[in-house]
């Protein structure tokens, strides 16, 4: 067997052993399509809103005020959501914003980590998220009478249909 | 005429082991390159549609209220007696309200004249006032919380006189 033949044989064996999906030879058949076939892309939309805004009642150190946000999906395919860390909290020393799930008509103790994509959600579903604004127990006396607005950005992205 | 076919000169003789080693080196490189091309190009490139929305909220902290109605009366020969009205403000569980009498100096700087106490009256002895002449006194609310202590702004002020000539005594100005 010549050198060239042996080289070809080695390459063929390597391709067969690599197991890549692109190395398959497929059986195929064809059929005629309708006279005016329609091919179109899907759509994807996510809407965010307050079910209950965070109450603005003044807080003592260690107190929390809780609101409920709603994320609603419309369109095709499954989806995921992500709640980013709140911004703009620096004006009130000791203020932190955290998130938990909402289930059975009440907020649970299950934390939603900021900045992490959720589990894949079914198509066309709605998710409620509890938003907790807490004034830290060690907030300084200088924080008295101060206030801060904050912003929560919620993102959504599509997933495959199945 | 018979033409003689000339054969090219033979290359320099090479060792059989050297030729085999060179062949397998080239073969290994070729197989590795082929495997990388096959394995590296097999995955599909996913693209996500993404969209974001934002919600705005706000939060505020309590403003501690100072006492009101601070008054001064002489008490005994040398002392003065201060009294005031407690602020109407509900405290959270685990918090304690106290009051502290302060001397108010230039620029609003305060110096404690008496220890914090929960009562709304305070007797001030001459020894607590170190400044000759008139001293401005006020009272502040102090709330002791589990993780911090908050102090209010000063109440209304009263003046007290300290006079060294008469064995230093205090009187309400």
Roughly how many Å is the radius of gyration of chain A? 27 Å
Instruction: Name the shape of chain A in a single word.
Output: elongated
Largest sheet of chain A: 5 strands, antiparallel
Quaternary class: heterodimer
What percent of residues of chain A are in strands?
A: 35-45%
What separation lies between the terminal Cα atoms of chain A? 51 Å
- The ordered H/E elements of chain B are HEEEEEEEEEE
Largest interface (C-beta under 8 Å): A-B, 63 and 39 residues
What's the number of helices of chain A? 1
Q: Overview of this structure, please?
A:
The complex is a heterodimer of chains A (about 160) and B (about 170). With about 160 residues, chain A is mostly beta strands. Chain A has one helix at about 5-20; strands spanning about 45-50, 65-75, 80-85, 95-105, 105-110, 125-135, 145-160. Chain A has one domain: Immunoglobulin-like (Sandwich), CATH 2.60.40. A 5-stranded antiparallel sheet of chain A has the order 1-2-6-4-5, with no helix packed on it. In chain A, strands 3-7 form a two-stranded antiparallel sheet. In chain A, a hairpin with a 2-residue loop joins strand 4 and strand 5. The longest helix of chain A has 16 residues, at about 5-20. Chain B is mainly beta and about 170 residues long. Chain B has a domain at about 70-170: Sandwich (Immunoglobulin-like). Chain B has 1 helix and 10 strands, in the order αββββββββββ. In chain B, strands 4, 5, 7, 8, 9 and 10 form a 6-stranded antiparallel sheet that branches. A 3-stranded antiparallel sheet of chain B has the order 2-3-6, with no helix packed on it. Mean pLDDT of chain B is about 80; it is low at about 35-45. Chains A and B meet through helix 1, strand 1, strand 2, strand 6 and strand 7 of A and helix 1, strand 1 and strand 8 of B.
